[in-house]
Amino acid sequence: MILQGRTAIVTGAGSGIGGGAALIMAREGAIVGVADRSEDGASETVARIEAAGGKAQALVFDVTNDQALEENFNAFIAQHGRIDILHNHAGAQVEGDLENVSLQGFDASWQLNVRAHFLGARIVMPHMKRAGRGVILNTSSSSGVLYDREMIAYTTTKHAVIAMTRQMAGDYARFGIRVNALCPGWVDTQFNAPFISQMGGRAQIEKYIAEKVPMGRWASVEEIAESVLFLVSDRSSYMTGQILVVDGGETVV
Active-site positions? Predict the structure, then answer.
């Protein structure tokens, strides 16, 4: 098991890609803090991990609440005496172009998709510096490297995550800390509901993916989780400040 003895926190781990990331890290030996604002979601992921023989605990809070984020991260680190991996994954889509996106939605996107990543990394960084090692993985999106139809709040925040990742990586590599970004393409989860609604329903999104994605299909959560494992493990030990796009080829066309 390639993460044996390590500790990890995954935000947004109550479902979807975050849940898949928590499961694969636990499978590989990590003790995982499953952070999610949904108690049911976090508990379900923990139950799946434990049923498979792994170790995990639920951290139920909203990552946009600064005090709750700091308290839960610090409590997990104090309990286990270390933090080796942080996967900042929690995020949201808010639909709308420049004229139609709500200002509240734009601000909420920034709080969740960027600021919470920033603060999470800020909390764990001193612990990683003292240890002389650590990995931070920020989830961006294929929308962070290309145009995404009428989704200005989402694309703006996901581009910002990439810039922030590169800055963190450059500043902290000398301390033995690696920071990379994951850019998933189309993964068939509830996360895509706002875009599917904007596109006009399920039939339209299926047609869009068939036409725009060279591989012609959605990714599975498990496929994206394998990329997460690569980025948080020593398999990518000489890789920092990089952006891994896992999108079935969409960004090459």
Answer: 154
Q: Is 54 exposed, middle or buried (0-12, 13-18, 19+ CB in 10 A)?
A: buried
The token pair that represents 104 in the structure block: 């509240």
Read off the pLDDT of residues 177-198 as tens digits, 9 standing for 90 and up: 999 999 999 898 877 777 677 7
What string of DSSP letters covers the chain? -TTTT-EEEEETTTSHHHHHHHHHHHHTT-EEEEEES-HHHHHHHHHHHHHTT-EEEEEES-TT-HHHHHHHHHHHHHHHT---EEEE-------B-TTTS-HHHHHHHHIIIIIHHHHHHHHHHHHHHHHT-EEEEEE--GGGTS--TTBHHHHHHHHHHHHHHHHHHHHHGGGTEEEEEEEE--B-SGGGHHHHHHHTSHHHHHHHHHHH-TT-SPBPHHHHHHHHHHHHSGGGTT--S-EEEESTTGGG-
Q: What is the pTM of this model?
A: 0.94
Whole-number Cα distances in Å, 230 to 139, 187, 224: 14, 18, 10
